[in-house]
Specification:
The protein has about 160 residues and is mainly α. It contains seven helices and no strands. The radius of gyration is 24 Å and the shape is flat.
Length: about 160
């Protein structure tokens, strides 16, 4: 617990802990996902004074497959995005290809971004002759962040250093 680690004052914890309520994560309450999603859709319609069609089977299946590490807040934001961008209603027969290509575009975009990031870091390492301090200063990121990215992309930083022989 965080009290033992000194992250939270013990007296404050006991003051606030009058009635502890244990709520399991959303991923273990799959039946709540659809109820909450529909509630958030209706809430969005009411607040924005716009009508958004109910969720279709594809969207519902997608929501039920998710792990929702952000729990209810993440689900609410996801539903809001669906309502805003008009993706809350797919016709399974007519738009199956559109859904597939949408998923493919998301996967492709992730790979494009990762490839661009790797190439950008390699170019910065080459420009600065492998000097890490110069690279992270020029890129406006922390040393740790740069090292994390180098490790993530399996970049051999030593190959960019210029020998002084």
């Amino acid at each position: 617990m965080t009290i033992e680690k000194g992250h939270f004052r013990e007296d404050l914890f006991y003051r606030l802990n009058v009635l502890p309520i244990e709520v399991p994560p959303l991923r273990s309450r799959k039946s709540d996902i659809l109820l909450l999603a529909e509630y958030f859709r209706a809430e969005y319609c009411r607040d924005s004074k716009r009508e958004v069609k109910p969720f279709d089977k594809v969207t519902i299946d997608h929501m039920l497959e998710q792990v929702w590490p952000g729990n209810v807040r993440e689900l609410k934001n996801h539903v809001r995005r669906l309502c805003i961008f008009g993706n809350s209603s797919f016709n399974v027969d007519d738009d199956a290809d559109a859904v597939t290509s949408s998923v493919e575009r998301k996967v492709l975009l992730k790979h494009v971004v990762e490839k661009a990031e790797k190439e950008h870091i390699q170019a910065a390492l080459q420009i600065h002759k492998g000097r890490i301090t110069a690279v992270y200063n020029s890129q406006g990121i922390s040393r740790k962040s740069l090292y994390d990215k180098i490790k993530k992309h399996d970049i051999d930083q030593e190959s960019f250093r210029v020998s002084k022989n």
